[in-house]
Amino acid sequence: MRRSHLATALLALMVPSMGRADDADAEKQVAMLSKQHREAVVKGDTKAMESILADDWVAIDPNGGVESKALAVKDLRDGTVDYEAIDPLEEVKVRMYGDAAVVTGRYRAKLTYKGQKIDSLVRTSEFYAKQGGMWRCVHTQVTRIAGQSGEKR
Fold this sequence. Notes:
Blueprint: H1 2-14, H2 21-43, H3 46-52, E1 53-60, E2 66-68, H4 69-78, E3 81-88, E4 93-97, E5 100-113, E6 116-131, E7 134-144
Parallel strand pairs: 1-7
Antiparallel strand pairs: 1-2, 3-5, 4-5, 5-6, 6-7
Helix pairs in contact: 2-3
């Protein structure tokens, strides 16, 4: 009997707990970082953007292109891309997995890219990891929602 209690206790220590208070705090931190990332992009705040994104951050754009952190910062600085708004619609969710998190959502993005105006509905997946005690965005994927009102190609 005593062995089964010991085995249960050891197993409980090995399995990450769900729903703990620190999980809720981490979820709030990641949600705030995701919001700060969107705000930094819209404001053109490359300093904030650089602190939120991991050095090896990669994004997949709506056309399937791959973008590095350095390229995203450069394009924002030199005006290649200029965001007017990234407005969250319903369906923004944060899911925690220990020291990793996924943020998914649906947004209306208004921007100018290489002189072309874009107004599009998109779904995004952002992946966050805790690195050196701090949450950082390590990957973003943006997918255009075809055929929905508000989209102009």
